[in-house]
Amino acid sequence: MKRLDNNLNNIQDVALITSLADVNTDLITMNIGKFIGKGTYRTVYEYNMNPKLVIKIEPDNTSCNLMEYTLWDEIQGLTGQLSWVKDWFAPVHYCSPNGKILIMERTIQSYHKTRPNLVPNFFTDVKSDNFGWLDKKFVCHDYGFIWRFIKYEKKWQKIEW
């Protein structure tokens, strides 16, 4: 997983590219696929370059994308008795330098599969829309706001989906 760096030579390169409306349109339509959903702070689209991924666009400065990126980066280092934590999160692939764009693995909402009755206690915004399936794993794909993620405890909360 990588946070994207600004690889343009200087601010003039950025200004030139962003001043070209047709280039902006091409970049957007090349990357942004069909609309998937909208939350309070972000809008989610299919990633045209790989439909197994989604693009989360955060227009305001809520830092949800940066939080997901930072949290995913942190839990990648968990090993041993803490490695179970990784299994509960949809992987992040990229985050733009300013955090406005995040690319994450796409989960599937399957109502044919039985959801677990318990999820880790560090999840605070526990609702059906924030979880989905990656193959056979049930994961959280919206973890931009986790306030209790201070300890990696095997403490659980019962959920009624």
Can you tag this structure with a few keywords?
single chain; 161 residues; alpha+beta; Phosphorylase Kinase, domain 1; 6-stranded mixed sheet; two-stranded antiparallel sheet; 3 helices; 10 strands; globular
What layout of secondary structure does this protein have?
Blueprint (H helix, E strand, L loop, with lengths): L1 E2 L7 H9 L1 H11 E7 L4 E5 L5 E5 L6 H12 L16 E4 L5 E5 L12 E3 L10 E4 L2 E4 L15 E3 L3
Parallel strand pairs: 1-5
Antiparallel strand pairs: 2-3, 3-4, 4-6, 5-6, 7-10, 8-9
Explain this structure to me?
By secondary structure, the chain is an alpha+beta fold. It has a single domain (2-158), classed as Phosphorylase Kinase, domain 1, CATH 3.30.200.20. It has three helices and ten strands. The chain has helices spanning 11-19, 21-31, 64-75, and strands at 2-3, 32-38, 43-47, 53-57, 92-95, 101-105, 118-120, 131-134, 137-140, 156-158. The strands form three sheets. A six-stranded mixed β-sheet has the order 1-5-6-4-3-2. A two-stranded antiparallel sheet has the order 7-10. It has a two-stranded antiparallel sheet with strand order 8-9. A hairpin with a 5-residue loop joins strand 5 (92-95) and strand 6. It starts with a strand and ends with a strand.
Helix content: 10-25%
Shape verdict: globular
CATH architecture: 2-Layer Sandwich
Number of helices: 3
Strand order of the largest sheet: 1-5-6-4-3-2
Low-confidence stretches: none
Give the oligomeric state.
single chain
Q: Percent of residues in beta strands?
A: 25-35%
Order of helices and strands: EHHEEEHEEEEEE
The N- to C-terminal Cα distance equals 31 Å
- Quick one: CATH class? Alpha Beta
Q: Which structural category do the helix and sheet elements fall into?
A: alpha+beta
